[in-house]
């Protein structure tokens, strides 16, 4: 059967970097027999501009029907004054929730030729390769009640609710334990159980599951504040980490910045939509929409291209194509090509399109 | 009038490092006419061991009556199986809440002779000197409802509530703006208003207050995930930062680790108890109770000693004594003395008591 991919470039630098990933898809179609049904739609600021909503129901339906979604980025601050439920970010939040994409896999891997781009000392980060599994459909992102109410004296009160259930914690912890078995066999679970009951439950549930089904894996626990410190002090102590939505948001951004090459890092978000027995998946760069450089043609397309590579392997059963792409990216980096975000002071910089072109040329050689 | 200080060493390394601060106090009494009424009590694990509660009501009352509290640390994991409302951490949480200590000032300052102890490249952190103002009596730490409930099927559900009101946000933002006027005139406010309504309100309230009363200060806003990244990428872009309880917990620990010398950093938590017109204040090291090294006599006492110095300046109007202590600490560091936490590989290490002794000797020379 023809495989279906939905492309959602979004706003900010999303469309520019997606364009380079599409060039790679076109090449795979022409040269590698990639039989794919590609469709594209608007989300985030781009959808707000045309349809007045951050994502249309029909786009959600298309995403559900696809084998995988390749997502760019959303967050254009041009829309910062729209009502809260119409901001660009709602696009990705609704996709995660409605496709039940509960496990966000965020690798922080250092690319050797980019070692000098990190703010950390080479000895602290050399060879860094950790994986954060972040819960993405629960926690304070979605808990009710939520909102802003006006008090009798005219001042306001903002409320959000952090909720986690046994089932929500277990299913994401399973993903982490399974991954650990394929990697180093170590999981560090992160919460703030010394202050929050939801974190206390998190720790209990992970501990129980470990005892019942994963005692071959080494499990440790860490408080989130300590974890933020340990990631800076000695990030290589970690392999797989698992944590809730909000801590995962901060800690995975922190972890990816340690590599010095945020513009290089892909991510996968996996789950199973209600009433479906098929895995759904969304692939997106770890970086955001970078509005400050949007439209300038200087964004790094490699995180988007590597997100495509992840998709080929994990959702489309095209591991060989995935490896080709990763090899091409690695060669391009080794040859010294740099976009602005990964260039050292004084190093010359290529454009988004030139970087995409270079990967394509490498693919043709491989 | 005689000034009243309450000492609360706590558990873990707390008692060991407090002992060194007390030696300094004794010297101030003997040599500098420091007329102080010193009392001491148990909190955290130490109080649990003796009184079966993390803090007694009479200790809260004593703290309210004191001019300032010098706190050590709490968090001994020996008590990890006590009920949630009896864990050691309740001691510090109740003190903050009942004394209404809403503004936690957490400096991240790099000590030049310790530059090499940071995991970051010298060029990224040299001269780092930022101040995080963290809200400490609101947010998800204290919001209701909270707890763990058992669902009909026997599984559980953990809930916490993040709440911020206009008044709570305004008063802590004022502290940040006032501080900025004494420093660089810049404040960065941090929240997650693209996902949480409480963060959206935070941004609104800080923006309004700035417009009304502090337009001479430069105000910027940053999302918490981006902030975690920016603190690693280029921490010197920040001067004063202001944020909620939970983000402040993670970000201030992260920021202090950038300095490579967590064991050196003091903090102050300020507020005004309900029904009082007098400022209350608690001073404590930024580091925790470090149970892994407790009782070994190797903890760094300098954060506790510098917390005393902060107290002398900000609560006891003894600025000259405060400067003496800071000078003594600075001389001791310059002379090359290092506890284990700040020693480079191969450097010789002194004990907690030796470090305290060295500061005392310097004081005698000054
Ligand atoms: C865009 C935003 C809603 C999102 C989040 O907070 O989850 C982003 O920061 C991420 O990490 O994917
Ligand atoms: C001990 C703990 C409750 C506390 C907190 O989370 O506030 C500590 O981490 C801190 O930052 O002072």
Q: What are the main properties of this structure?
A:
homodimer; 366 residues; alpha/beta; Isopropylmalate Dehydrogenase; 2 domains; 10-stranded mixed beta sheet; two-stranded antiparallel ribbon; 12 helices; 12 strands; 41% helix; 22% strand; globular; binds 3-isopropylmalic acid
Could you describe the 3D structure shown?
The structure is a homodimer of 366-residue chains. Helix content of chain A is 41%, strand content 22%. Chain A has a ten-stranded mixed beta sheet, sandwiched between helices. The first copy, chain A, contains twelve helices and twelve strands. The model of chain A has no long low-confidence stretch (mean pLDDT 96). At the A-B interface, strand 6, strand 7, helix 7, helix 8 and helix 9 of A face strand 6, strand 7, helix 7, helix 8 and helix 9 of B. One 3-isopropylmalic acid (IPM) sits at the interface of chains A and B.
User: What's the end-to-end separation of chain A, in Å?
Assistant: 27 Å
List the quaternary state of the chains.
Answer: homodimer
Note the overall shape of chain A.
globular
SSE string of chain A, helix = H, strand = E? EHEHHEHEHEEEHEHEHEHEEHHH
- Strands of the widest sheet of chain A, in order across it, are 2-1-3-12-11-4-5-10-8-9
**SS class of chain A:** alpha/beta
Count of spatially separate domains of chain A: 2
> Which CATH class of the largest domain in chain A?
Alpha Beta
| Sequence stretches where pLDDT stays below 50 over 5 or more residues of chain A | none
Q: Please tally the helical runs of chain A, counting DSSP H or I stretches of 4 or more residues.
A: 12
| CATH fold-type name of the largest domain in chain A | Isopropylmalate Dehydrogenase
Q: Tell me, rounded to a whole number, the average pLDDT of chain A.
A: 96
Largest beta-sheet characterization of chain A: 10 strands, mixed
Alpha-carbon Rg of chain A, integer: 20 Å
- Architecture (CATH level 2) name of the largest domain in chain A: 3-Layer(aba) Sandwich
- Please name the two chains that share the biggest interface, counting residues whose Cβ lies under 8 Å from a Cβ on the partner chain: A-B, 62 and 62 residues
Identify every distinct bound molecule in the structure, by name, code or SMILES. Answer: 3-isopropylmalic acid
Our estimate of the beta-strand percent of chain A is 15-25%
The total beta strand count of chain A reads: 12
């Amino acid at each position: 059967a023809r495989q279906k991919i939905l492309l959602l470039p979004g706003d900010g630098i999303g469309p520019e970097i997606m364009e380079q990933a599409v060039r790679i898809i076109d090449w795979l179609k022409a040269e590698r027999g990639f039989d794919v049904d590609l469709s594209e739609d608007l989300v985030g600021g781009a959808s707000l501009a045309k349809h007045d909503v951050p994502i249309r129901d029909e786009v959600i339906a298309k995403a559900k029907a696809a084998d995988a979604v390749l997502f760019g980025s959303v967050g254009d601050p041009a829309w910062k004054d729209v009502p809260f439920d119409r901001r660009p970010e709602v696009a990705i939040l609704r996709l995660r929730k409605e496709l039940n994409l509960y496990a966000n896999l965020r690798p922080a891997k250092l690319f050797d030729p980019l070692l000098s781009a990190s703010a950390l000392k080479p000895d602290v980060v050399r060879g860094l390769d950790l994986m954060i599994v972040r819960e993405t459909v629960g926690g304070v992102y979605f808990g009710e009640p939520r909102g802003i109410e006006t008090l009798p004296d005219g001042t306001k009160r903002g409320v959000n609710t952090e909720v986690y259930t046994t089932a929500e914690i277990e299913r994401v912890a399973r993903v982490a334990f399974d991954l650990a078995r394929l990697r180093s066999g170590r999981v560090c679970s992160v919460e703030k159980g010394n202050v929050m009951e939801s974190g206390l439950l998190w720790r209990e549930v992970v501990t129980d599951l470990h005892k019942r089904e994963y005692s071959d894996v080494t499990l440790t626990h860490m408080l989130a504040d300590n974890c933020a410190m340990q990631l800076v002090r000695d990030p290589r102590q970690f392999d797989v980490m698992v944590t809730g939505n909000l801590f995962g948001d901060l800690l995975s951004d922190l972890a990816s910045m340690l590599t010095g090459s945020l513009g290089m890092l892909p991510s996968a978000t996996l789950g199973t939509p209600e009433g479906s027995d098929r895995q759904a998946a969304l692939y997106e760069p770890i970086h955001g929409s970078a509005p400050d450089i949007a439209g300038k043609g200087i964004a790094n397309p490699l995180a988007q291209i590597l997100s495509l590579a992840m998709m080929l392997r994990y959702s489309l059963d095209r591991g060989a194509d995935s490896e080709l792409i990763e090899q091409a990216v690695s060669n391009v980096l080794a040859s010294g090509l740099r976009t602005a975000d990964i260039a050292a002071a004084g190093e010359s910089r290529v454009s988004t399109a030139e970087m995409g072109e270079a990967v394509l040329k490498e693919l043709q050689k491989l």
